[in-house]
Amino acid sequence: MSVFNSGDAAALGKVGVLFGGRSAERDVSIMSGTGVLAALRSKGIDAHPFDTGLRSITELAAEEFDRVFIALHGRYGEDGTLQGALEQLGIPYTGSGVMACAIAMDKIYTKMIWLMRGLPTPRYATLAADTDLAQVVEQLGLPLIVKPPHEGSSVGITKVRAAADFKAAYEVAAGFDEVVLAEEFVTGRELTVAVLGRGATARALPIVEIVAPDGNYDYQNKYFTDDTKYVCPAALDEATSAEVARLAVEAYRAVDCEGWGRVDVLLRASDNKPFLIEVNTSPGMTTHSLVPMGARALGISYEDLCVEIVRSARLKMAQGQG
């Protein structure tokens, strides 16, 4: 990472930190945005908060930001809709472009792309109101995971241990999404890998292992307790660590992500085989968040990480213009 000085801060111009929004992850996004804003200001950057849940696109245009840091999570911030508006407004932004965000936000389409690339991900089924749930249990076995494919990894998710509980789990997820994802349950270690850069320059940060109480990394244990333990770098042998990092970068590139992101992986206990779960194009940046944790393991401070991300802000669709 190159040295950052006051001249560089001036060159970045007026920076907007977009946070809040209207998704189920609004509260977490506010925490992320607050942290990013303070980090950028501590480096002398002219950074300003902008809550997209309270203010309009017209107001965003009127702010005349030179670039924006997207600290939004979930719908209307991480799904390509905001990215498309920023492309139209000509405001460079952090993270992935319109198509990559839209695909990554849909766990089903992400899986389809990974499978076409020969990348390992748990077997799955898509559920609708008329789906034969008994047939899905026969296909995937028990336990299984049921979740809305367009929400964060800890929103609307249920671990189904008995067939009798499947319908209720479906109804919880269906409260968030029209189509629901059922996924085979992989018993093993929960890992996550932050990735920075784009294309051939994309690189994995040290792997984080998540050790949640009773293996339950839900919304509460993810953001609001100190009971969940994190190990970084994860205690893996060299070969396994290299394979998990390689797969994470391949998964990130397969969806055409850039700037920064985080890939979640399960390492199966029976044979140490890694399985890709999802890719996050705007991961959390709270005090509990995992991308800053991976960066710290390389000696990169939270503040320097925020600077590197905001420096990478760009328009993705302007390249095709003559």
Automatic annotation (TrEMBL):
Keywords: ATP-binding, Cell shape, Cell wall biogenesis/degradation, Cytoplasm, Ligase, Magnesium, Manganese, Metal-binding, Nucleotide-binding, Peptidoglycan synthesis. Mg(2+) 2 binds at residues 278, 280. InterPro entries: ATP-grasp, ATP_grasp_subdomain_1, D-Ala_lig_Van_CS, D_ala_D_ala, Dala_Dala_lig_C, Dala_Dala_lig_N, PreATP-grasp_dom_sf. Its EC number is 6.3.2.4. PROSITE patterns: ATP_GRASP, DALA_DALA_LIGASE_1, DALA_DALA_LIGASE_2. The keyword Nucleotide-binding applies. It holds the Pfam family Dala_Dala_lig_C. Its cofactor is Mg(2+); Mn(2+). It is found in: Cytoplasm. It catalyses: 2 D-alanine + ATP = D-alanyl-D-alanine + ADP + phosphate + H(+). Pathway: Cell wall biogenesis; peptidoglycan biosynthesis. Mg(2+) 1 binds at residues 264, 278. Residues 111-311 form the ATP-grasp domain. The active site is at 25, 153, 289. GO terms for cellular component: cytosol. GO terms for molecular function: ATP binding; D-alanine-D-alanine ligase activity; metal ion binding. Binds 2 magnesium or manganese ions per subunit. PANTHER family: D-ALANINE--D-ALANINE LIGASE (PTHR23132), D-ALANINE--D-ALANINE LIGASE B (PTHR23132:SF23). HAMAP family: Dala_Dala_lig. Cell wall formation. Belongs to the D-alanine--D-alanine ligase family. This is D-alanine--D-alanine ligase. It comes from Massilia violaceinigra.
